Amino acid sequence: MDTIIIQLLNGLDKGGAYALIALGLTLVFGTLGVVNFAHGALFMLGAFCAVSMHQLLTISKSVKDESIKFFDAFKEQPYLEIWWGDTGTAIIDYSVPISILLAIPLMLAIGIAMERGLIRHFYRRTHAEQILVTFGLAIVLQEIIRHFYGANPIPTPAPATFSGSAPVGSLVGLGENVVYPWWRLIYLGFSLSIIGAVFAFLKYTTFGLVVRAGMADRDMVGLLGINIERRFTIVFGIATIVAGLAGVMYAPILPPDYHMGMDFLVLSFVVVVVGGMGSLEGAVFAGFLLGILQSFAAMNEVKSILPGIDQIIIYLVAVIVLLVKPRGLMGKKGVFED
Amino acid sequence: MTDKKTNNWSRRQVLKAGVASSAAIGAPMFFSRNTWAADFRNNPGNSKNLVLGFNVPQTGAYADEGADELRAFKLAVKHLNGEGDGGMLNTMKPSVLKGNGVLGKKVTFVTGDTQTKSDAARSSAKRMIEKEGALMISGGSSSGVAIAVQSLAQEMGIIFMAGLTHSNDTTGKDKRRYGFRHFFNAKMSGAALGPVLKKEMGTDRNAYHLTADYTWGWTQEESIKETTEALGWKTLKAVKTPVGAGDFSQYITPILNSGADTLILNHYGKDMINSLTQAVQFGLRDKQVNGKQFEIIVPLYSRLMAQGAGKNLQGILGTTNWNWALKDAGSQAFVKSFGQEYGFPPSQAAHTCYVQTLLYANACETAGTFYPPEVIKTLEGFEFDGMGNGPTEYRAEDHQCFKDVLVMRGNMKPTSQFDLLEIVQQVPRKQVEYDAKIFGGELGPYVV
Amino acid sequence: MKNEKILKSNNIPLYMVIFSVVVLTMPLWLEPIGAAYPDLLQKFAIFGIFAVGFNILFGLTGYLSFGHATFLGVGSYTAVWSFKLLTMNVLPAIIFSMVLAGIFALLIGYISLRRSGIYFSILTLAFAQMSYNLAYSVLTPITNGETGLQLSKNDPRVVDGLFVEVGQGIPSTNLFGLEMSGYQGFYFCAVLLIIAFYISLKIFNSPFGLNLRAIKSNQTRMSYTGYNTKPYLLAAFVISGMFAGLAGGLLAVTDPLAGAERMQWTASGEVVLMTILGGVGTLLGPLLGVGIIKYLENIFSSIGVKELGDFFSFVPDSMHAFVVDFSSLFVGEGWHLTLGLLFMIIVIFLPGGIMQGFDKIKNLMSKKDKE
């Protein structure tokens, strides 16, 4: 029983990440009609916001390292610690949450620049061309990051307070063995609130209304004399922020490296398609569904019956869903079928 | 670069076609002892230069390791040509290297990107051999790649001095006459870890393995199991995880309730950084199971991985081939010249690549020829010292080096950003030796 | 996408002769740019076949498969198994490769073609990823996982055993005694590329090809006219799958090793990129794309600072260091950056690929002539 509860929790946690990434992707799909292969790279850029903030806060004075005698080596001591002592240490400790402050404006700027400079010119181009140009962009972004940060993953720890595990079991009266890392619980809560915020924004604001109308029928909205272009820019900016924040908060879970975006790219596309192209609810639902299935497929009991199932479960589900429900779980008719 | 030996090549092809058409396909007993000096692939002949090919991952997950290997290669070439302070040239024994190139030829090199893919690695090795006339190929940062390139080397008659590869198969069932490995392997890691584990964790433990689902992972799991079970440990479960899974949490959660008190991570590189980071987040290291402190073991370590895992690695046991903190003259000489050149100490990948290059050069110099079969015979059974790890032997039966192995622990109190691992024990060579026959495989012919 | 000019049938022989000469003289005219060595030449020819086949599906029908590397992988594994079990002769190997890849294509195509658009792409991608993941792990007894399937001296080689004595080392692949490595391997692949190209040309010009194009421009209308489009699509899918199988088989012929990474989604993506880069639906475009990507991968990745220094020796000393530093970002380990930029530039300015660039130049020239 404990095992199943932990596995379920794990599935929700993974699902939160998948849903968050897929949400931004499908937002761009649905409104702008653009297949954005650089979405994974945006996630990666977000994670590197956390890395950069960490490095920024730990800008250090080089102190000669006396312990190395063969050659001149230097130890780093962060200025923040030199100036403010323990307060400085505490600020450094909280570098990941603090970097959200950096990530929001930065990702928005990147998003707007990307939409204005590149994506806008591809609204009417074929999907194949959109894929190629955004894939090219993804490689370029990736290589730039590699040039500055190297290829090795960079540890970006969560604040020390949240580094351990939460005794979830004892709190709710289940077994002691039901524990779960604090930071992953925070991530789950974080993704749920971001998802909630995006939905609320689309549902309760005039802006959201127009965007939703645009998703349903872009030409019609355009005919009504609404400046859809500017709204598209903002939508793309929002999608970029969502991807970026997903990346920032993921940094303590997965030490960021320049390639992490590509690793998530295929997966997030599968999530979006299983959910139904252009359906925000579908993307979120499919994210959680695939997360939970993936988590359960990894259980030893399941694997002993179906060896290798944990390796293919996501794709298997995708195939079955697409064969049974041609447009994904919540897809609308006529979207992306040409 | 300028001395391409295309003529040699085509003549050789014609000869080989002749052999083949006489239906003795691949049976190469063609060259007589007298003609060899003139005819082998990429014979430098009268050229003033000798070309070596360094095939390292420049893109992908192991790019940083590859970059460090390349630095070591460049340093080795410098030292061979008599530039710089000579590094291990001064400490290597026996050595006939004089710092004037090899056999009077200046050493030059070409490089390739393996992308950590067998196909790409073979392609770039072929380019260096076919186009740029490389006489020896070295490098690699993954066992799959090393094995693939090694078998290519055998087919093409070019010596391959393996870089970082830890699978038992490289000098086990997939060994080749033209392939040599200085790095240690999973079997030796297990043998070295055994006594330390016994001392630190006792004989009554329940182990849970997470194993990267590919060749290297399996051989390591097998070797570690063998060791720990001999100590009296029980193996509760050995779970295979997909390579590059990123998030390993779904494989870690079942451990919580399994009754295991020890987790053995048979992961390397990025996978190991991720799985370890996540295992620590799940509070495994704070756990008490059956009255015992829960322990994590990472059988194969590297400093670059230690950098990626950060604090999570502190106090965790593992093994390495070499570490820059070793105090012998050879290691110190190497660390000194590497540090002066690049400003930081070398990794174990850099060390093994540097040593391999010197060993090859020395073998050519000793044999008095570049003709591969003669060079191979010189390397086989070659005993040397002064290159770190104490007295070392290139075993003739499987081309595996035997030397001391280091058991390491993640440093609890690092004094610098490079001081991430501390040496627990330098396990003597005798303790990690094994019979060459246990893995099977066949070296193949000298002349191809 | 605009309609491509189809060759007039009476021009085909001339066209083929020119094409054959160009392909077969590659070792000569590629020498100045450093690409004339057997391995890269073989890769040009083999991936050429792969891309030509892919173009039959994607170029003609517009169905974008993201899983074609599966067939490449299947072809390679089949060929190596044929070497291991039967004979080192390459003919059976490539025939088996094509047949088995064809069967896989039939199965995967039958299921995937129930959907269109991006759903089709995701289905093929899902199949490819499943094949890759299984080949890497559970199917290791067949595929030898990460290490890749290799020949071994102790393989049975039943047919060879009847005729040839066992030699000392591992035998080489051969065509009735002619070894398939080096330049011979290239010429073998080149001849097959010429044949494959001829077949693709024929398909482009045939009524079958016309039907496929009609599907691309409007499938609904096609089905209204009473055409059942599925068999045509499936046929195109299987043909291109067999081309991929042949390419995979040839990879094993020139270098008897088969690895799972050939089936990864990035490998599928590569052929898509090659085709689009050169020009989708054009006859020669995919081949140009292959040439550029393989050249970047093999030659650009090997250029270091030293070579750059030599290359830019004409630049004045004051600028020299800067020029070399700056350009070193794009070569060696930075070759991926060049690739990414190239994709972007081509797609932004030449959506029809490089072939469109040639068309533009041609149009400019002819305009000038008229003036």
Note the topology:
The complex is a heterotrimer of chains A (338), B (448) and C (371).
Chain A: H1 2-32, H2 39-57, E1 60-64, E2 74-78, H3 79-84, H4 86-93, H5 95-117, H6 127-149, E3 165-166, H7 168-172, E4 180-181, H8 182-204, H9 206-216, H10 218-223, H11 228-250, H12 260-275, H13 280-297, H14 300-305, H15 309-324
Antiparallel strand pairs in A: 1-2, 3-4
Chain B: H1 6-21, E1 49-56, H2 63-80, E2 106-113, H3 118-131, E3 136-139, H4 143-156, E4 159-162, E5 179-181, H5 186-201, E6 206-212, H6 215-231, E7 234-241, H7 249-256, E8 262-266, H8 269-281, E9 288-289, E10 292-293, E11 295-300, H9 303-309, E12 317-320, H10 329-342, H11 348-367, H12 372-379, E13 383-384, E14 392-394, E15 401-402, E16 405-410, E17 421-427, H13 429-432
Parallel strand pairs in B: 1-2, 1-3, 3-4, 4-5, 6-7, 6-8, 8-11, 11-12
Antiparallel strand pairs in B: 9-10, 12-16, 13-14, 14-15, 16-17
Helix pairs in contact in B: 2-11, 3-4, 5-6, 8-9, 11-12
Chain C: H1 12-24, H2 26-29, H3 38-61, H4 69-85, H5 90-112, H6 117-136, H7 140-143, E1 149-150, H8 158-163, E2 174-175, E3 178-179, H9 182-205, H10 207-217, H11 219-224, H12 229-254, E4 257-258, H13 265-278, H14 285-298, H15 305-311, H16 317-328, H17 335-349, H18 354-370
Antiparallel strand pairs in C: 1-4, 2-3
Helix pairs in contact in C: 1-9, 3-9, 3-12, 3-13, 3-14, 4-5, 4-12, 5-6, 5-12, 9-10, 9-12, 10-12, 13-14
